[in-house]
Amino acid sequence: MAGPETYEVVVIGGGPGGYTAAIRAAQLGLRAALVEKEEKLGGICLNWGCIPTKALLKQAELYRLFQRAGEFGFTVGQVGFDWKKVIQRSRQVSERLSKGVDYLMKKNKVEVVRGRGCLAPGPKVEVRDTKGTVVNTLTARHVIVATGSRPQTLPGVQLDGNQIITSREAMVLDQLPKSLAIIGAGAIGVEFAYFFNAFGTQVTLLEALPQILPREDEEVAGILTKSLAKQGVQIATGVQVSSVKAGAKGMEVLYRGKEGEVVLKAEKVLMAVGVVGNIEDLGLEALGVKTVKGAVAVNERLETSAKGISAIGDVVGAPQLAHVAAAEAVAAVEFIAGHQRAPIDRSSIPFCTYCQPQVASMGLSEAQAKKAGHQVKVGRFPFSASGKALASGESEGLVKLVFDAKFGELLGASIIGAEATELIAELGLAKHLEATYEELIHTIHAHPTLSEGVMEAAGEAFGLALNL
Ligand code: NAD
Q1: Domains of the chain
Q2: Which residue, 58, 56, 65, is CA-closest to 83?
Q3: Which atom number of ligand 1 is nearest to the Cα of residue 275?
Q4: What is the C-alpha separation between 249 and 244, in angstroms, rounded?
Q5: pLDDT band at 249 (very low <50, low <70, confident <90, very high)
Q6: Mean pLDDT of 100-108
Q7: Share of the chain above pLDDT 70, in %
Q8: 3-state class of 415 per DSSP?
Q9: Are the C-beta atoms of 321 and 349 separated by less than 8 Å?
Q10: Vertex 82, ends 81 and 86: CA angle to 5°?
Q11: d(CA 153, CA 146)
């Protein structure tokens, strides 16, 4: 039996990976502790990522919708906003959810230990205060490293938290910047481009690769590029940024693009070029935990190279998404508990970007499916043909589904449009269950809904669309 200071599972890091692991361990009757260095539980996702940004993005969406009031038959005066309140609301949402995690820890009798966790032989977890003094030592049968990630920057570009910022500062700016250069057009770059542009900032989005949202379907990225450009975002792809420095008036970003060397002037620069795992000062090396390219190396059971130590979430590398971290957390704990279960299904992970129009995908894009050697059938359904989309004033975008031509199995899905991030769930389930187009078209979808677009796109791939 475990003694008072001995835990079956000690988790380092209280983000969506870590706290989920602690809950699952407790559910399985394993004595669990969660070590967290920050004051608030929930990690980047709840405090400085997914949740506060989704509050901000909803506010941007509403602001733009109010501006369209006339289209819906409303007469309203000049629509304005109070920037401080816009920010405040997003902080309140975060605060509330973080308290929710405190409650979940209590409910599940997970011991929350404050301080910076570091691995020691045993395995043990030493907990240090801000001065680095060891204030607690926890003996664990299993340790789960869930320390997350932090924003990366470019070589030679120093983040200063004021003029050269990351998403963390961008979500709590005292004032709306007049202009903003965003470097990197992944999910963070695109979401903040949409957000600041909606509130009136002059936004320029710079992306090194040939398209924005490089991991998304080319056609979908093209539709989003046009839409954001129409909304007022300046977009340059295929650029090489060579320097970011303070000029006489604000910042200057020097880059080489299709039009040659450009000096872009902006009040602030937001770095959104990806994240890097928090693998430092954890004692990984001393315990023989291998890392590869800045991420903790794990097998399908989320075990590291050191006995008794697992790792989950952003710290194990891409895709660095909260929902992947949570799925890994459940799997890691169940493997520790000796369950006979399959590794997590990585083939149907949803990828979501919450700008408007929203973008969501899972599985293989058309290009990836072809590259993988599939003969494909592709079905599209534009929301301009959807009754629900027209009624809602949201007719932009489409559902695009990719099937294997031989057996009709769903290989992947890409959606751009209103509620794309909700609609993708059905397709993730379909892929997980190895469904074919027939299951999708034989499932009766409510009318009128945006989800009918999924059924119609499946039909369209095989010449069976009814409303096109
Ligand atoms: P990312 O890796 O998704 O995107 C970074 C982008 O920067 C890429 O498109 C890359 O090509 C580009 N880039 C890299 N170097 C560049 C350079 N020198 N010049 C111009 N562009 C350059 O990373 P992110 O957007 O910073 O997000 C970080 C992580 O957080 C990702 O794993 C992301 O998936 C996740 N995230 C997810 C969501 C969501 O699911 N909605 C939202 C925010 C963040």
Answers
A1: 5-151+276-346 (3.50.50.60), 164-272 (3.50.50.60), 357-461 (3.30.390.30)
A2: 56
A3: 28
A4: 13
A5: confident
A6: 97
A7: 99
A8: strand
A9: yes
A10: 95
A11: 22
Q: How many residues does the chain have?
A: 468
Q: 35: closest CA among 101, 108, 116? A: 116
pLDDT (mean) for 217-228: 98
pLDDT at res. 294: 93
Best mutation site among 235, 269, 275 for ligand 1 pocket (most ligand atoms within 8 Å of CB):
275
Pocket of ligand 1 from Cβ distances under 6 Å: 154, 183-189, 191, 206-209, 214, 239, 241, 272-275, 320-321, 352-354
Question: Can you say how many angstroms the Cα of residue 233 is from the centroid of all Cα atoms in its chain?
Answer: 21
Distance, CA 170 to ligand 1 centroid (Å)? 15
- Please report, as a single letter, which amino acid is at residue 153: T
Residues 6+ away with beta carbon under 8 Å from 306: 123, 287, 288, 289
Q: Residue 372 and residue 454: Cα distance in Å, rounded?
A: 24
Rounded to two decimals, the pTM is 0.97
